[in-house]
Amino acid sequence: MSESQSFFKSTSYDFEQEVLTRFRVLVEILPNECEIHRETWDSRTVICLDFQNCPYSLEIVKENVSILLNVMERFGLAKSIIFRDGNHLKAWRNLVKN
Description:
Elements lengths: L2 H7 L2 H15 L8 E7 L2 E7 L7 H6 L1 H11 L4 E6 L2 E7 L4
Parallel strand pairs: 2-3
Antiparallel strand pairs: 1-2, 3-4
């Protein structure tokens, strides 16, 4: 099957997963154990980083949030990011335009 034909058989879920994979590659500070997905909060879509499997990395990544926000803006992924440890919300950051 040619590349263009396989593209048309892809779903929006497949596309989202590809973008999140590229996000992970560009944001080298994220540990492999950190789960990445998008969530809907009210009418907003946010990027969720879950550090349940690597809680030791949470503070380091939070300190470098500008890297995350820059890549999020580049891909148009979301305007906000949340940091979780399982079901516990640890932090929320917004993409702020100057």
